[in-house]
Design a protein that fits this description.
Length: 170
């Protein structure tokens, strides 16, 4: 019986570690892709990452503490409603429902904000960068057309390692 419980504990601990590692990788990649995005320089003294309905606890602060993106200190902001979105360089949207996602994307459509999410179908629905895992490897789907509509250009280096998609609205 003890052997069974111990084995179950190890299995659950391994799964939790795998999910924690995936979350950390998503958070790290959110900032790393920014160097491959060319957009108009914003006047803010900070590089602002806004996290919508934060499911990661303090992970964003841990990863970006004392870090710079595009030579600017990173500032993490959290919002619970898209109406609270202010100036931002990146909007990270965790998994959300289809209707909520469409509402968010509609509200950021004309703003120069890099949208990143791990929501299924994100890039095809009008998001810019979608993160997903295949065989425990992080993959990217990128919608360069949507980026261009938001005054951003994605460097070919990033496009070469991603799956390029078009959104359903195009």
């Amino acid at each position: 019986m003890f052997k069974y419980i111990f084995s179950l504990f190890l299995f659950v601990a391994t799964l939790l570690h795998a999910y924690e590692s995936e979350d950390r990788l998503k958070v790290v990649i959110a900032g790393k892709v920014a160097k491959y995005i060319v957009s108009q320089e914003k006047t803010s003294a900070n590089f602002i990452i806004t996290v919508y309905k934060n499911p990661y606890g303090k992970l964003f602060e841990e990863v970006y503490k004392d870090k710079k993106i595009k030579s600017k200190p990173v500032l993490i902001k959290y919002i619970d409603t898209i109406n609270d979105l202010q100036e931002s360089d990146i909007l990270y949207i965790p998994k959300v429902g289809a209707n909520e996602l469409l509402d968010i994307l509609q509200k950021v459509k004309k703003r120069d904000i890099l949208t990143i999410s791990d929501t299924r179908g994100f890039a095809k629905k009008g998001g810019i960068i979608q993160l997903y895992f295949v065989s425990q490897k992080l993959k990217l789907k990128i919608n360069p057309h949507r980026a261009s509509l938001q005054n951003m250009k994605i460097k070919p280096t990033l496009l070469r390692i991603a799956t390029v998609v078009k959104d359903n609205e195009v």
